[in-house]
Amino acid sequence: MRILYDGRIFQKQKTGGINRYFAEIISGLPADYHPLVTGVEDLGKNAPRHPNLEQPHFKLFRPGRISVRLRDRWWKPRLLGGLDLFHPTYYDLTSGYALSDFKCPMVTTVHDLIHARFPLQSDDAAEIIQAQRESVLRADRVVCVSKSTERDLLEFIPEAAGKIDVIYHGSSFPVNGACEATDIHENPSFLYVGGRWGYKNFQLLLRAFAKAASLVPNIRLVLAGYPLAPEERWQMHFLGIADRVTSVVFPEEPALEQLYRKSIALLYPSRYEGFGLPPVEAMACSCPAIVSNQPALLEVCGAAALHCDADDSVELSRLMRIIHDDPVRRAGLIAAGRDRVARFTWRATARILLDVCVQGARIQGHAIAATHAVPQAGESF
Predict the structure, then answer these.
(1) Are 222 and 196 a contacting pair, CB within 8 Å?
(2) To the nearest whole number, what is the mean pLDDT of the chain?
(3) Is 360:105 a contact under the CB 8 Å cutoff?
(4) Which of 15, 66, 81, 125 could lock 115 by a disulfide, CB 3.0 to 4.6 Å apart?
(5) CA geometry: angle at 131 spanning 128 and 133, to 5°?
(6) What's the CA gap between 97 and 301, in Å, rounded?
(7) 50-80 burial, b if ≥16 CB within 10 A, otherwise e?
(8) HEC string of the chain?
(9) 232, HSE (Cβ side, Cα atoms, 13 Å)
(10) Domains (ranges, CATH) in the chain?
(11) Omega within 30 of 0 (cis) for the link into 63
(12) Which residue has the higher pLDDT, 67 or 234?
């Protein structure tokens, strides 16, 4: 089976949840499948690994009018004509491609409805909302990463009803309690992982940490992800916590795993998530999570995390002190987290998604090139 993934997300994200999702599902395809990632040469840190992975790429040359014509009339038809399935990694495609180019069946994954829910938080929201809508309507099957995302999708694009499958993300880190740091209370650090813009609610997190730090003098905050912006540094300065915050810029996976295992808790007070990958990774690494009571995080974390109102910095600060001061409560959350995270594996994600992809190809009566049998529930590749 030849599946083409337009590589837009590998252009947009150096690392991140959607980037990780596609790297894992491509890597999890059966060995006799043929995945192609087009439109991008550098797949970044979370590069998919598959024995048959191809990265077809057409380099434009001068004069442009001739190379574009050659690409569109000769190269693209040869590439697209032999496909069994198209699965874009994002809603807008890489340069030179349009949804109308693809005549084969198509599966689209919807990770969230953030631009529709908060249209004023990005300058390109209108374009992405339209591209998302077109991608969902064109798809033969639509994958949502949580039931919460499915509800949001049906609110904004009700025409998607009847072709949605809910498939959860997984965790890339092994569940191993023996790896928990032994000096965790000697140097107690809270951890934040991911982007810090808008709906991520990072300013509230800083205010809550400042309140907790005024009462618990030895705690620190570690940020894993993007470099600190000047306005973030100023806010930390005015809150009096600049010397309590450490930034680790885009840590490699082993380093990120150790940050989870050495942290007293993950802080994740986001106002909106489609799934929420960091709390799942934290649970796998024996790191309790304090998350907002946003629907997707309630769905994914359940009682294995502490939940707070996304508008209440005082409540978040109180929960930070509870998890710092009460080792029995913390140990209970760690145990519950290990049990909870067992249901979130990339192997299961890839297996179920493969079934959906094959169903999508069969919807149109499309011939499936590979002879590999789709694994049933409980089986592995």
Answers:
(1) no
(2) 88
(3) yes
(4) 125
(5) 110
(6) 38
(7) beebebeebeeeeeeeeeeeebeeeebeebb
(8) CEEEEECHHHHHCCCCHHHHHHHHHHHCCCCCCEEEEECCCCCCCCCCCCCCCECCCCCCCCCHHHHHHHHHHHHHHHHHCCCCEECCCCCCCCCCCCHHHCCCCEEEEECCCHHHHCHHHCCCHHHHHHHHHHHHHHCCEEEECCHHHHHHHHHHCHHHCCCEEECCCCECCCCCHHHCCCCCCCCCEEEEECCCCHHHCHHHHHHHHHHHHHHCCCCEEEEEECCCCHHHHHHHHHHCCHHHEEEEECCCHHHHHHHHHCCCEEEECCCCCCCCHHHHHHHHCCCCEEEECCHHHHHHHHHHCEEECCCCHHHHHHHHHHHHHCHHHHHHHHHHHHHHHCCCEHHHHHHHHHHHHHHHHHHCCCCCCCCCCCCCCCCCC
(9) 18
(10) 2-170+346-363 (3.40.50.2000), 177-341 (3.40.50.2000)
(11) yes
(12) 234
- Partnered with residue 164 across adjacent β-strands are 142
Is the Cβ–Cβ distance between 363 and 84 less than 8 Å?
Answer: no
- Closest by alpha carbon to 109, among 85, 78, 82, 80? 85
Nearest partner of 296 among 334, 317, 335, 270, judged by Cα: 270
Give the amino acid at 188. Answer: P
In angstroms, the CA 373 to CA 381 distance is 10
Q: Tell me the per-residue pLDDT of 296-347, one tens digit each, with 9 for 90 and over.
A: 999 999 999 999 999 999 999 999 999 999 999 999 999 999 999 998 999 8
> How confident is residue 179, by pLDDT bands cut at 50, 70 and 90?
low
287-311: burial string, b at 16+ Cβ within 10 Å, e else: bbbbbbebbbbbbbbeebbbbbebe
pLDDT at 107 over 90: yes
Are the C-beta atoms of 34 and 292 separated by less than 8 Å?
no
The answer on pLDDT for 14 being more than 80 is no
Tell me what pLDDT residue 123 has. Answer: 82
| pLDDT tens track for 222-266 | 999 999 999 999 999 999 999 999 999 999 889 999 999 999 999
